[in-house]
Amino acid sequence: MRKIYVWLFLVVSAVSGCRIEDAGHSGNLKVVCTTGMIGDATKNLTEGLSDSIEVFTLMGPGVDPHLYKPSPDVVNILGNADVIIHNGLHLEGKMADIFNRLKREKIIIEISENLDEHRLLNATVANTGAHDPHIWFNVELWAEAVRYLGSKLSLINGVSREKVLSNTEAYVYSLEELNNWVKDELEKIPTENRVMITSHDAFRYFGDAYNIDVMGLQGISTVAEFGLKDITELVNFIVEEKIPAVFVESSVSGKSMQAVQEGCKSKGHNLEIGGTLYSDAMGAEGTPEGTYIGMVKHNVNTIVKALKSVY
What we know:
- By secondary structure, the chain is of the alpha/beta class.
- Helix content is 42%, strand content 13%.
- It folds into 2 domains: 2-179, Nitrogenase molybdenum iron protein domain (Rossmann fold, 3-Layer(aba) Sandwich); 184-307, Rossmann fold, CATH 3.40.50.1980.
- α9 links the parallel β7 and β8 (272-277).
- Residues 1-20 have low confidence and may be disordered.
C-alpha cells in the first residue's frame, strides 16, 4: 500500500505542477534556508542530491529569528543564492525587505504560504489579521508545510523531480509517526498539570494541537518588552495554580524565568526550572536535537518529565 500511495503522490504532483522554474544557476544549485527547522526539512527532501544541490542554513543553534539582523556577509550569501526558503508570517521580520528585493531574480519559497488560513493562530488575542509564525510546533501542520516545500522544490529546473517527491513522501511519513508519538507521550501528563509556561509565547500551536495550556512571559515575538508587572502577574498565577515547573528556551535569555522562580520562592512556592526547550532554533549540528524530529522529541521528553508528577 505504501508503494501505491507514493506512486499516486508522484502522479498527482506531476499533474498539478506543470511549470518548471529556472533558477538560472551554473553548477550546484545553492539553496539558502533561514531557520534550522527549514534547513533540516530541505536536507531531508533533497537527500541523495548533494552532487547537484548545496543547502545552507543562516540561523544556527541559539539564534533568535525575531531579532536576527543580516550582516553584510549574510546579504552576500543571499545574493549568491539560487533559491531562498523562509518561514514567512513575519518570523524573519527584519529580512522581509531583502526577500522582496530579491524575488524578481531568485526563487523564493515561503514555506507557510499554502497553509489553510483557518489553521493559523492569531498573533494576539485581538484578531489583528497577523498570524503566529511558530507553525513547526504543530507537527501535523509542519508536515503540510513540508509537503508544499517538496512540491515547489520539485519544480525547479535541474532538480530530480521524482527523487524530491519520493523523499518528501518518506519524510512526511516520518513526521506523521512523530505526531502520533507526541500525542501518546503527552497523555502521561495528568490533566491538572497540563500547564506549560515558557520564556516567550512560542508554543501556542503546540498547546492547541496537543491540549496543553501554554503561557509565555513575553509575547509571540521576543521583540516585545516585558516588565516587573508581567513577572508579578505570572508569579501570582503560578503560586495560585501550584504550577510545578516552568521552562527556559535555548534561543532566549533565561534570566527572566529565574526572576519568576525567585518571586515564587519569596511567596513560599518551590518552582522548578523544568529544563531547556528548543523553540525558535534547534540544537547543535550533529546532535539529535540538531534535527527537527530530535528537537521535538527532546522538548516532549523534557515537558513530560517536568509535569507528569502530581504536585
